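Annex B, item 7. Sequence and structure tokens for protein A, then protein B.
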Amino acid sequence: MKRHASMLGSTLLVALFAVVSSTPFSVAAGQAPAVDRRSPSAAPPMGDLAAPQVGGGISCEAEQKLASLDARVPVPLLPHMANHQKQNMRDHLLAVQEIVTATASGDFGAVESAVERIGYSEEMGEMCNHMGAGAPGFSEQALQFHHTADTIAAAARLRDSAAVLQALGRTLATCTACHATFRQSVVDPATWSSRSTKTAPETPVAQ
């Protein structure tokens, strides 16, 4: 049990860093950062929107420099889509916190309730497909996370703490793998439509 807790603790630190970092994705546990072989002066494609400079914030030039140093695959998203995705990821982390706390106290009903927020549903599947419309492979990895999360609830129904932690560890492994591969790239509607297979939404994606 201590070994599972140790494994979970290190993985949770990676997940926490992924959410609080300046970009929504981070490098997987135990994996070396990808080497960017592009020119340091390379700028992101036209249409990418950098955050405006606001009182000590990061300038557009600095954002472009950061993007040029990040070799992960960009996921083109409209501003409201990117914001919604970050909100979801922060809630995913809260759900993980609730799962760990509930498992420690043996409250398996609370574990199942928390898993409902990160498990698979048709609505979640549609959202993943929409978010990843401009980045081949993203939707598949996102869906793998949600399907793997369902195994946590299955373990909770068996009232098996070790199995819950093992399932949670596998679920977080899908998170870190996805974060190591992809990063957000905020773009304008025309750019998003040109890179995706769908029409740019005019209203925020329903949660």
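Protein B:
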Amino acid sequence: MTRILCLILTLVLAMPVAFAGQPQPAPLTMQELNAWTAQLLEQALTDKRTVAQTAAGFEAQGEGYTLYLSHNDLSADSVLLGALLAGNTEHSPVTGLRETYVGQDVQQVLAAYPNDNPHLAGTEDAAVLYISGSLPTPVATGVVRRAGQTILVVEHELYYLTDSGVDRAGVQYTVDNGGIVAIRYYAAAEAQPLADAEAALKVLADLQERNDYFAFDTANPDPLQAEDLVMAGLHFAGLTMDTASAVLGKPTHVETVEDTEGQIITAQWDGVEIAFVKDKQGAHAQRMTLTGVHEGPRGIRTGESLAVVLSRLPYDGDEVPVATTVLYGDAQQQVPPYGSLFVQGDSAQAYYALDMGDGVTALMTLIFAAGTLAELTIARL
């Protein structure tokens, strides 16, 4: 991961030249938010919706949308506290800002707003897309919330000064398996002191400087490399029991099998199993399997969809394959590096092989059930 990070950072430093002359979308503005909320109110009036009082407050529900109001009335002058768009809205009169919609690919949503951080450098949990402006003038921010490579939320927020302090409002996109499943408008319940708002922006500014983690390229990914073979924070090459225990803690179960050639030691942790071989040539990790929440190569995790996982590595054609095929290389003759996919019913297996040097081939096996990754294994051949 460290070597890849250095390469990515080198590319990032070169990016201003590469992207010169390509204007970015403008930051979010209050005028834009106000125009959008006015459109939502107008649509509810056109649909002749009524206001109902619920545990969440005053609501007006329409097809694919819910408006949250400050009072029990619906008019063009109503104060909108929040709104939720759910259900596919691509062909609906109710859409998100900048022609975004529920069902859209998250990459299209990212492209609709500024992005000073195309590789999403940050932490494993979050990355700042942009910060535009400084208090006391309005400040627009864009943030991605994620679990590793999986984007969960994209949020664009405005900080603006009022007589009561600093108010906040914005739009939030909820993401599942790379697609938008909900769009929310929100406004803060109350203003916060200027010092608190400045402190919150300072946190974002600090996050903007972080380079602990980044998003892997899914537009033109490279074949699997030896430096990619990191699982649960452990590099497969040179892995020892001591290293694994230092990172994962004491194994929950250890089993040792001996024969005339040496020993096979299989150790288990929550969601992780590693088999070590000790023989006359020395000791090495023979196999490592993930079934839990830990990250594998290219940030792959169990529970991710077939399409999301395959997008992290090369494949022939413009569309992510869904049938048995060669992904890249000479998979038929099994000459590494190569990738292949085998699909049978609702199950699938993907295989990626690479040369680790010294005559050793590593094979990564991905097992999918019902369209999602259930198990990931790296083994020496």
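Comment on protein B: Residues 41 and 342 are 50 Å apart (CA to CA).
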